[in-house]
From TrEMBL:
UniProt xrefs under InterPro entries: Cyclic-di-GMP_PDE-like, Double_Cache_2, EAL_dom, EAL_sf, GGDEF_dom, Nucleotide_cyclase, Rev_trsase/Diguanyl_cyclase
SUPFAM superfamilies: EAL domain-like, Nucleotide cyclase
Official protein name in the record: EAL domain-containing protein
Organism (species): Poseidonibacter ostreae
Organismal lineage: Bacteria, Pseudomonadati, Campylobacterota, Epsilonproteobacteria, Campylobacterales
UniProt domain EAL: residue ranges: 439-682
Residue ranges occupied by any GGDEF domain in the UniProt entry: 298-429
């Protein structure tokens, strides 16, 4: 009977292990793969939207279309989506304007037919995709397989009405899977390995634990003594000792197996971590590890190191030798990095990164870049296994204090290779020394301000037609001392960009909003706060905002105004509308700030229905001398009046301007002529 029990337990363990293996293979692994692929697609979609935003911005600021096309062509040639994806542009007639991939240079896109559907690529599918605001997926060929249209592609479509341009991405879906290739195999191999280990442990337990128990029970069953005899006869010390020894052995085996299992789990966890975050060939950390390492860093500079003409090395010496070159290159970079206290990662293929998270001094960073760019100039890579020397050249792409350091370094690397430069610094029209120097100075200045609680809200009054204060706009300042020890207040244009890059912006805004909301009790006027669409998208910012608002009662919330910057950076009006609805339900008023300079989509204004429209100061500034500004302001006022939206005019710098916009029908006024920003509020 006991043997049957142990047999059942054994079968239950086997079934459980098989169930676990099926779960990993058919559920967990595909889920992980799909999640990583979807994440990459979302990231590349954001990259595409940024490129579209840059093109739209350039189109508004450019008067020469030929120069604009050259400028955009240069931009698109430096942008790669996913692994090989490109962006091309054509007009509504199907004429190709820009094609960085040269795929459509000799073709009339309006006549191209999708072989699998027989639909026209441009006239039907791409226009349909734009109108429905959805991704467009189709099957296409490849240069090396021109007759087989079996490769899935994905495209996103945007349209610039002013230029009559369709801006379209062209990416093979398999490009996204290259970021996660091997994940399924990795998980499967680990699962099989874990299954084998657990099976071995199960056999070990059976032999070392269950067998002694069976033997012990068998010995016990041999001792068949009548009850009365048992009571009359002294207990056998030998039998009791035997049982005690068996139980002690059992306990020892259980404890030993528990420790063995813990050791195996720790070992396998370490192996999984190494496979996910370490490059198997060079033992360097990989791209995923770099992203984890820098995600919470205040300041990051990255230099991507690309081995030039590496394909030639593979063709001339073979792939195995190419791998040895990569290993030796990694060793040389590691040795070099130890002198500057930086870290080395292998990003992919023949591209490495050298990362500084500690913000070394600008003079030292200059020396660092200079030495890195010439590191392999007179130093051959020695392949000891073959006893040969191979000379290599490298190209650097450098990103310093950027919001997305890895991507911007990639853009810089492409620019360096295209222009045949030894290295290229992203945004290198700015002096590298000054960028580092400014970042260090203001990061420390902001850190001290946050620590010393010297972030100060200033209030600029807003007046009605009778020149009575009706509300205050909250502005950010940092209290500081000048060279003579006098108290001064620093303006945001000096430090706000650095605050965003060094991830100090949230703390700054939190202090200003918290202090301004506390000042609500000191006035009966409204208080307004400036919010950007980026703030609205920031989950941490919104969470911080809600915590501050929770301290305010519903009556005082009706005196709060959110001024939302109107610009072409608003990529999703649905998110904006949801945000406005959430806070409008709490009694908070909504204003559209800087109206007339951004996208100015009146259709969206009809949906949002703000309480106020604030006309941008650039239109008010010269309204008394510029007829175009006058007509624009007049149109905005008439539009707002029809919707019963109050109009606020900024930059009232003279009595003449005040009288002029007052006659046009402006409801409220703000500017230095009427009142300057001040830390005091009434």
């Amino acid at each position: 009977m006991n043997n049957k029990i142990f047999l059942k337990i054994g079968w239950m363990l086997i079934i459980a292990l098989l169930g676990y293996l099926f779960f990993v293979v058919f559920f967990l692994s595909p889920k992980v793969n799909n999640y990583l692929s979807d994440t990459e697609i979302k990231n590349e979609r954001l990259q595409f939207n940024k490129v579209v935003s840059i093109i739209n911005s350039k189109s508004r600021n450019s008067e020469n279309k030929d120069l604009l096309i050259k400028d955009v062509e240069l931009l698109l040639s430096s942008v790669t989506l996913a692994k090989t994806g490109q962006i091309y542009i054509f007009d509504s007639s199907g004429k190709v304007i820009i094609d960085a991939s040269s795929e459509f240079e000799t073709k009339n896109i309006s006549k191209l037919i999708l072989p699998n559907t027989q639909n026209k690529l441009f006239l039907e599918e791409i226009k349909k995709s734009y109108n429905s605001r959805s991704s467009f997926e189709y099957l296409w060929n490849k240069p090396y397989d021109a007759y087989n249209y079996v490769y899935p592609k994905i495209s996103w479509v945007e349209y610039n009405k002013n230029l009559d341009w369709y801006i379209v991405s062209s990416i093979y879906r398999e490009d996204f899977s290259t970021y996660v290739e091997g994940i399924n195999a990795l998980i499967l191999n680990i699962s099989i390995l874990l299954f084998v280990v657990l099976a071995i442990i199960g056999i070990f337990i059976t032999v070392k634990v269950i067998a002694p128990i069976n033997k012990m029970l068998s010995e016990v069953q041999k001792v068949h003594v009548e009850t009365n005899e048992f009571e009359a006869t002294p207990k056998s010390k030998d039998e009791i000792g035997f049982l005690a020894n068996q139980f002690n052995t059992l306990l020892d085996q259980v404890e030993t197996n528990r420790k063995t299992l813990d050791d195996h789990v720790q070992q396998k966890t370490k192996e999984i971590t190494n496979k996910l975050y370490y490059d198997e060939l060079t033992n360097l950390k990989n791209r995923y590890a770099l992203q984890e390492d820098i995600k919470d860093s205040d300041f990051v500079s990255i230099a991507l190191v690309d081995i030039d003409s590496f394909d030639d090395i593979n063709e001339l010496y073979g792939f195995s030798t190419g791998n040895l070159v990569l290993i030796e290159t990694a060793n040389i970079l590691n040795e070099f990095s130890s002198r500057y206290n930086v870290t080395v990662h292998r990003i992919h293929g023949n591209v490495f990164s050298v990362t500084d998270k500690r913000m070394m001094g600008f003079s030292k960073y200059d020396q660092f870049i200079s030495e890195l760019s010439t590191l392999f100039k007179n130093r051959p890579v020695i392949v000891k296994e073959l006893d040969i020397e191979i000379f290599i050249d490298i190209t650097l792409g450098i990103s310093i204090a950027q919001e997305e350091p890895l991507k911007t370094a990639g853009i810089a690397l492409k620019k360096a290779k295209k222009t045949n430069q030894r290295y290229f610094v992203y945004n290198n029209e700015l002096d590298t020394k000054e960028v580092i120097k400014k970042s260090i100075f203001w990061r420390e200045k902001i850190k001290c301000a946050l620590k010393d609680n010297t972030v100060t809200p200033f209030y600029q009054p807003i007046f009605n037609r009778n020149k009575e204060i009706v509300k205050y706009e909250t502005l950010m300042r940092i209290k500081d001392l000048d060279d003579e020890g006098k108290e001064v207040f620093l303006l945001p244009y000096l430090f706000l960009d650095v605050a965003v890059k060094t991830k100090q912006y949230l703390q700054l805004s939190n202090q200003v909003i918290s202090k301004a909301l506390s000042d609500l009790s000191r006035t009966d006027k409204q208080i307004s706060f400036n919010l950007s669409f980026k703030d609205i998208l920031d989950v941490d910012f919104v969470e911080s905002l809600d915590k501050n608002l929770d301290k305010i009662d519903s009556v005082n919330k009706e005196r709060i105004v959110f001024e939302i910057l109107e610009s072409d950076h608003i990529s999703d009006y649905t998110i904006l509308e949801d945000f406005i609805l959430k806070y409008r339900n709490q009694g908070i008023k909504i204003a559209i700030d800087d109206f007339g300079t951004g996208y100015s989509n009146f259709a969206h204004i009809l949906k949002i229905r703000p309480d106020y429209i604030k006309i941008d100061g650039s239109l008010i500034k010269n309204i008394d001398t510029d007829k175009n500004s006058f007509e624009m302001v007049k149109s905005i006022i008439e539009f707002s009046r029809a919707l019963n939206i109050k109009v606020i005019a900024e930059f009232i710098h003279s009595q003449e301007v005040f009288d002029l916009v007052s006659d046009l029908g402006v409801d409220e006024f703000q500017g230095f002529h009427l009142g300057k920003p001040d830390p005091h509020i009434e």
